[in-house]
Model the fold of this input.
Amino acid sequence: MRECGTPGVPSFSALRKLQSRLVKEADLQPKHHTSSLGNNFYMNHPLDLLALDWANPLVREHIHIYPEVCDTISESWQAEKWLNEVNLDELSPMWADWKRTKHRHFYVKEVAQLEDGSFVVPMRWIIFKKEEYFDCYRVRESEETGKYYLFGHSSESQLNGFHRLPVTELKYNYLELQSGGFNFDFSENDSSLVGLHNLGCAPHPLRKIAKNKPLFSLRIMPWCDDVSGNRSKQYNPHVNVYTTNTCLPHQKLSQEYFVRFCSTSTHASALEQFDALAQDFGKWKEAYDCKLEQEILFQIFPHALPADNPQQAESCSCGGLGGSHNCRYDENGGSKEYKETDEGYHSMFEPGNPRSPEKTIEIINKQIETACLGVQAHVDQLFTATGIKDKIACHWMDRLVNLAREKQSIRISDPVTCDTRLKDKTIKGAARDALKQTIRHEIQQELLEWVYLQPPDRYEKLPEDSDGRKNLRPGDHFNVLLRIRGLNPHQDSPCEILHTFLLGQDKYIWHDTSTKWDKKKDEIFAVRLQSSSLDGLSITSLRPRYCVQYKKSLIGKHFKALQQLGIFHLDESLCSEEIFELWKATGELGAMLWFPEIKDMKQYLADLEILIANVLDLWAIHDPNRILVKFKLHVLVHLVDDIRRLGPAVLFSTEVFECWNAIFRLCSVLSNHLSPSHDIADTIIDMERFKHQVSGGWWKSTDGKWVQAGVKVRKFLKESPELQRRLGWADLSKIIAGSVKLQAKKKRSALCWKESLDQYWTEARNDHGERHATWSRCIHVISQSHDICKEGSWIFAKCILEAAPVIVGRIARILTPSTSDKVSQNADAVVILDIFELQGEKDSRMNMPVLIATQRSAVVAAKDILFLFNAQHDCFSANCKPVNAPILQERKTTTKMQAIIKHVNMQRYFVNMHALHNAHLLRETLPRHLTEPKLIFADRRSKHKESATILRVTGPAKRADAVAKAAETRNKRKQQQNVQEHAQRGRAVEHAPTPPVPAPVNNDSSDGLTVAMDIDMP
Done:
């Protein structure tokens, strides 16, 4: 800037000082932590980061404070867990009429009076029918005792034991009733029912904390994984923790702008960092609410733990995915022999007995007690038998086993230092063995008491009367997540569709299909895949030849494309019938998993259960052993419960976190690597400060006033697409349904209605265009689902001129009355459609609806375009063949040729039911009989028995072969080792120094000694 002559440019050091001052004013500083294992790291605490959300006008307007009851489930606060499982004390405790009387706060578990004069005790605030309601107990006075009592449990007009009333019926809160002379005397039973011992006698205890400030609760979704800090292929391991505010809509949380970085460490594990993060849960934090324009207090609680499967296993204190009891949800599993029985094999296709944090802690306690006996084999047996292996506890168990062995050696084995009781020679046999066992148990108790004192610095901070002084403590000795209020890691670590389905099921089926191909079949599939229509798939590009060339190294985006398109290009020449059926079942299930909203949860879960059963049953036919060795197949059965409790699977997808890793890597590369945890946290906290201030966020200045940046700074983000892109923020409100984008002015031409329609013009349509003199052609139109629909796109639309209320067709032209604007919202804009007829039956081979060209067209208003979908040409029936075409390089046509598919007979298309985009709208629009899934095998158990029977033959044989191969490998290695040792000895002899030659002896030596010599005798 100085070189350009800009006046008043500050020095670089001045800029850094200003940035540091602004960060301190925003109260954003990484905090140092030392874990129970002694590892050091820094954390940007989520409580501090989420305080920014309240003060940021771009975020605050989207925060949902209360759970919502509705038919369509699209957000976390609408799903089962938030509505019916979360403890009432973890929800926002108060409500006020923020527009009229925001100083009058109504609290839960306090008596309030309604407009009709009756009394109630609100228990939670809730959104019902898009309005604010509250669930409550009604209050009545007993004529006999004069005491007040609660009722509602036996009433038929209530939901979940509560009455539900609109907040507009509230008249006086408890403080107003108390000042009016009311005194409510409740029985102990009613007080315990509500959860307050002083019900009716005193205000809610939280009022003392609030001090007339509003109180709210937020729920977060922490994510953790191991990430490389390098952008190159050289792995630089870091363990990262990010989080998101679950009270924001998924449409926002899918943007990188809303992801919060918490911590990273090259030393501390995920559980060690979660221990530091857990300190924020349930604590009240001050923030500025820019919507209410006042200070508030809020607290946070964890809602779910999305991650990949190995990380989720660690978060649940479970062993590796290769263990015999490898499921974090349930206790299914066992030995290989058991899994090959009819009962054991069938159990892998259903959810088993659920795990619980209480039982897991009990198992960890038993493992630590066993470790105090000094026998590692016994500890390993517990790992194998239960599937529980806590990373924090393992650290202490390793130390305890070694300490126990040392103490036993000193007090039992060593005759010099052994226990004095063992020196009594009269104690022999069983009595002596019993005495040794007693000493072992004494050592065990001593070690348990020792481990309670660890780590010493944390033990010293405990209160004198704390139970933690005589027990194992979460965070110090085992996984802290097992003891967090409102969190069950076993059930709240949902099946994540990126790592489990795309990198699991899709990867397995692609491997089994493509590994058998030679180069010729690779080329055939690549040519066919290249001919796919991508419109309506939200896939930006498709690289078929890359997919087949590097078929063993594909990533999630490749499998997502193959899942949606692969089935259209497979036939008997490329795969077997079993594989083809598995591709169909995989695509149908995948489309259901990417639903962004669910209108009928009961029906959806029933359909999902069928589709999961079909996929697993087909695997049992194709490869019976696959579900026993691939945990990602068994975990699919738990998806039904995950979606019921937490909402659509996309809500707990981790793709946005994986994308955010690019920002972390850039910060890592630019650090000096001397203190990576602190440097990266410090860099990102400054980014958070900048993001907050350019977004118009408020912060408290040094004089104690809440301030925000100037108008021009606040406009910078809204008016700069480049900054929006860099911060990962998108303003979707600018996308308006029914609007159209015109062609560039150089290409634009204004034509009359007849000329604009060209071959689509008819006398009947002439009146439609008479209202405007000229019309212009458009590039795209925005549908009601906010899709960008171009010429050639397949869409569903409303049309009053057709017999059916909804028609399906392909866009031929998009027209709008001529204007100089680039984007037009003219209500007279129209779309010309080529109408296709939807057949009444699905195609028997593809199991998809069929579209047939009708040679008819329709003129539809742009605002009546419903949504975009994907359709694929039926190349199999039309017998489309490859032809040679020139290759384009650098946008130039070359003389080189490559094969492409030439589509013929363009009359028959498939509605792509494997497409992820708008899959929910497609199934809502099509008739139920065209989308209803059906079980492939009605008697599933019989099929599983057949597969188990096969496994009982092949399983032992494979294990015997494995044992034989292992023995053979050991023998080969031993022979190689012997050969190497022999060669080393040979080289050692070869390079050994030559012994010195003795000097000739003089027989006439003066010492008179006679020397014997060899003499050749004649």
Remarks:
- DSSP finds 35 helices and 32 strands in the chain.
- The CA atoms of residues 643 and 649 lie 6 Å apart.
- Residues 153-159, 1003-1018 have pLDDT under 50 and may be disordered.
